[in-house]
Write the structure tokens for this entry.
Amino acid sequence: MKIAVFGDVHGNLPALEVALKKINDESCDLIVCLGDIIGIGPFPKECLEIILNQNILCLMGNHEELLVHGIDSLKGNDLSEGEKLHQIWIHSQIDNSLKEKISKFPYYLTKILKGNTISFMHYPIDQKTKNFKKIIKKPNIEELEFLFGEINSDIIFYGHNHDCEDKVGKKRFISPGSLGCNTLESKARFIIINKGKDNLEIEKFSIPYDNKELFLELEIRNVPDRELIRKFFFH
């Protein structure tokens, strides 16, 4: 069985298209999206439609959760005015039929391959608050062990922090890095898991894409907060 894993597309259609071309060329048996298809980039609807039409298994991310429950569901008014305007714009691009499909996204997926229990998620959920746990940037192995302590798996694939990670402690923790948000270079990142002869083979991909359309559409579509978005999320 061959499984492709990506996450945090964040409305970056050019990056998604080059990634899916390679993934489809690899003839994967299952494609898993770790959440956050929408938010930040100018193509929320287009990215959703492509992913949903390809029978990709999508997990709930914080941006999908915000769409489903609404901005007012946030406790403590965590969004700046610019972020609120941006989320309002994102939500306005997505019709009710898409929203209904998103509302059914699960939070977790578990598979067993070559004797390994593998879990996929956007990020772990705090069992007390039922919210995604607070993000840890550049976590060390002790922080990862604590963060995912309630997940009883051998290998954990996760997203949310946008960085590529691959650390081994009591478990192996792997983040493919954001497919759509890469501040170092215009490359779409994802992973393919393959059943080797004796063990699992995990191959990491980083495929270049043309960012001209991405930046052009941020302006043409008048995406709120686009200057900050260009500065902090895209190369």
In short: The CA atoms of residues 27 and 69 lie 35 Å apart. The helical segments are 13-25, 44-53, 62-69, 81-92, 96-102, 141-147, 212-220, 226-233. The radius of gyration is 17 Å.
